[in-house]
Amino acid sequence: MYNILINIYNSIHNVESRLNHLECKYPDIVKEDDVNKVYKLLAELGEETNALGNLINALLQLSPPTLEIISNLLNNELDNNSEEVTRDLLMVKKIVDKLLVLRTENREI
Q: The organism sits in which domain of life (predicted)?
């Protein structure tokens, strides 16, 4: 799982590097406003990837019984929340459930 996050993070930096190259090579074609928007989106994507890695790392510190409790609490919350909150909680629940399976099976994460 960490390898996937590292690959995503590296890909973001590769795109930033290529965008920088295009911006320098074709300054008349590449609009600065568009480039800045893309840089901002890439920075946000990098931050989200980093935050996801931190969340996974924190959850990995927990025992399987604790992960089960969190999963059950998330189930209860998912039944009682609005659509936007539910979408975010559902993503966290999927991560918790996957980590629980991997931890229970003693597989490498």
A: Bacteria
**Token pair belonging to 97:** 């459930």
pLDDT digits (tens, 9 = 90+) for 43-75: 888 888 888 888 888 888 888 899 999 988 888
Domain borders along the chain are 1-61, 63-109
Cα 5 from Cα 25, distance rounded (Å): 30
What is the three-state SS of 45-94? HHHHHHHHHHHHHHHHCCCHHHHHHHHHHHHHHHHCCCHHHHHHHHHHHH
pTM: 0.66
